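Worked example

This section walks through a single chain of length 760. The input is the sequence exactly as stored; nothing has been trimmed or padded.
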Amino acid sequence: SLFEKDKLLYSFLVCTRLMISLDKINSSELSFLLSGVGGVLQGQQPIKPADWVPDRTWTEMLHASQLPSFKELPGEFTANLAKWLEVYDSTDPAAMQMPGKAHEKYNSFQKICILRCLRPDKVVPVVQQLVIDEMGQEYVEPPPFDLKLSYEDSSPISPLIFVLSPGADPNAALIQFADSFGVKLESLSLGQGQGPIAQRMIDDAIDRGTWVVLQNCHLAPSWMPALEAKVEGFSLERAHPQFRLWLTSYPSDKFPVSILQNGVKMTLQPPKGIRANMLNTYFVMEDGYFHGCKKAKDLKKLHFGLAFFHALLQERRKFGPLGFNIPYEFTESDLKICQTQLQMFLDEFDIIPWEALRYTAGETNYGGRVTDGHDRRTTATMLYDFYNPEVIKDGYSFSESGNYIVPPGDPTLEETREHLKGFPLLESPEVFGLHENANITCARSETYALFDSMLLLMPKGGSGGGGGGQTNEEILEALATGMLERLPIKSEKYMFGLPFRVDEVSEKYPTDYNESMNTVLTQELLRFNRVIDVLRNTLQQLVKAVKGLIVMSGDLEALAASMVTGATPALWMKASYPSLKPLSSYFDDFIKRIDFLQQWIDEGPPPVFWLSGFFFTQSFLTGTLQNYARKHKVAIDTLKWDFMVRLDTPSTKADDGCFVNGLFIDGAAWDHRKNVLTEQKPKVLFEVMPIIQLLPILTTDFKLKKGDYESPLYKTSARRGTLSTTGHSTNFVMNMIIPTEREERHWVKRGVALLTQLDD
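Given that input, the structure is written out below as C-alpha cells.
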C-alpha cells in the first residue's frame, strides 16, 4: 500500500477479511462484488425490462440472482422500474433509499453489490465509507509523508528506498534533510560503468559515517546483484552509526527483493489536481527568472499558460484512453526546458515567434515523448490554447467556465500564488475540453481497477459458496459444458469438429480477379477455425480435469481462475481477435461473428457488412479497395477512402465501395436529424453509429471540408495497440472523416473516436 492508488485497496482487503471472519459478509457475495459473476446462467433468461437499463447492469443482476440473498433481485427491479430509474439518474445514488422492499431487505454490503450493477462509477466512495464504518476514519486517510520518521525507522545496515513516480523528485527534500542533520551527502546517478564508483562511495561512507544516494537503480539492472551482495555484507560492527544508504528507483522487477524486504520503503508522489500542480510549480519559482527577461510581463502570462499546460497533461492521464491512448510520463525536466526556451525566445525576438514556441514545446520537448500520432494531435491542439496572442491580454480564460483566468496586470510571484489559490480544488472535465461524462468513465475505470486488483489477491480454489452458492468446480463444469454445446460441432452445417469446411466454401466462392471478397471470406474462416479449435480443446480438457480424469496443468488452472471470475482467459486471447469483453459477453460476441460468416456463406455477401465481425478488419478494407481498383483500372495506391453517413438501411450492396455498420461513438453522439456529430447525453457513454458508406476515391480528388472531423477507428476502447507482423496496428484500423458543425479542435480535445466493439 505504498502508492496512493493502492491504499484504499489495502484498507478494503483488511476490512473484508475482518468482516468474513466475523460472519458479517460471506465469500460468495464478496466474490460477486469483485467480479460481477455469481454463478452460471442456465436456460432462457428474462429480457432487459427497459431501454435505459445498460446491458451490463442487467447481466450482472441476473448473475447476482444465482446467489440465495439476491434470488428475487431481477423481479424486484422490474416491479419498481420507475423508482429504480430515479436512483440510476441521481447524482448520489448511494444516499437514496432503495425502492420497494430492497431498502430493508439488503444490508449495507449487499447494497454495494447492487450499486456495482447499477452505477459502478459511484462505488469507490461507498467502499471508503464501508471501511470508515467498520474500521475507522484513519484507514482511509493515509498519514502525510515524513522523512524524519522514515529515517528513525532505519539503521546503518537497512537502506532507505525511494520508489519513484513520474513528476516527483525526492532530491531537494533529501539534501535539505541532510543539511538539517549536518551530514555530508554524496550522490551518484547509476548507469553504464557507474557500479565500481558506487561501490567505492559506499566503502568510504561506511567508515566516515556519511550518506550515499544511488539514484535510478532501475537503469543499472546488471549491477543490482552486486548491490544486493554489498548490502547483505553490511554489519553493525563495521558500519559507522551515522552511515545511511539511500536508493531511488522506479518500480522494476530487476530490483533485489532482499533489499526491498530489509529496507525502509518510501514514495513521493506528485500533487493531484491542476490547482495543486500549479502551486507546486510556482512554489519553486524564483523572481529572477522573470526579471532577467526584456518582456517580463509577457513572460509571466505565457509562463502561466505553460505551467497550466504541464498540469493539464499530467492530470489528463486519469481519463484513460479518452485523455491519451498511451499514459505518457511527462516530467519536471520537460517543463524546465520549455521555461528556458520561452525566456530565450522572448529575449531574442522582437515579435513573439508563436510557431517556434508551439513547435519546440508541442513537437520536441513534450511531443518527443508522445509516440502515438493521435495523441500528438491532441497535445498540439491543447497547446494552442496556451501559446497564442490572446494569452497576453488581460482576462483570458483557459476554459469555457471562466474558472481559470490568467492573472491580470503584472503580478508578483506571491500575487500569482494567491491567484492560484482561488482555482477550484477539484477540476471538472470541461477544463480538459472533455464532456462531463468523462468523470463517469474515469470513476468506472477506478472501480473496476480496484476490484480487479482485489481479485488477484483473493485465495484461489476451494468453494465459492460461502453463502450457499455453487462451488467453483460446479461453476466450471456447467460453464464449460454450456459453451461446448453452443460451439458449432458436428451438425449438418459443421463437420469434423470445425465450423467451416474451407475447401467447400472455396469451391462456392473461388478466387476471382474481380471479387476480392471471396479471398477475404476464406481467410476469415481459417482464422476463426483456429480460435474455435483452441476454445473447444481447452474446454474439453477443463471438463476432464474438473472430473479428475486428467491432471490440471498450469494453463488449465489459469483458464479455470479466469472463468470463475468471469474474465476472458489469456489462453484464448492469444489465438483470438482483440477484445476487452468479460467472458459471457466475449463468447456471445464470438458466436455472433460465426453466425455472420455462416450467413455470408449461405446467402452471399450481405448488402451491409458488419465491420465489427471481422477478425482482421484491414483485409476486408484492402479487398474493397482492390475491387474498386480492378473495376475502374486504377492503381490501388492512388486511392483514398471517402465516407458518407447513411440514415437509411440499403437493401442492395453498394455499386462502388461498401456499406458498413456495427460501429460505436466514444466521447460524442450522433444527431440523426442533421446527420452530424453532436454532444453526448448525460450518462450515455457510447452511441451506435449509423451505417457508413466507404467509398474509394482518387487521392487527388480528396478534399477535407470545413467542419469535418478526422476520427480514428479502433477495435477496442483501450485504443493503444502494437505493430503486428503485417505492418498494421493490433488496435487502430483507419481514420474516418465524419461531418460536424463544430471545429475539429473541439472534438480532438473531447477525445472522440469510433470503436468496433464495446467492453460490455
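What to look for: The chain has five domains: 4-137, 155-262, 290-437, 471-604, 606-759.
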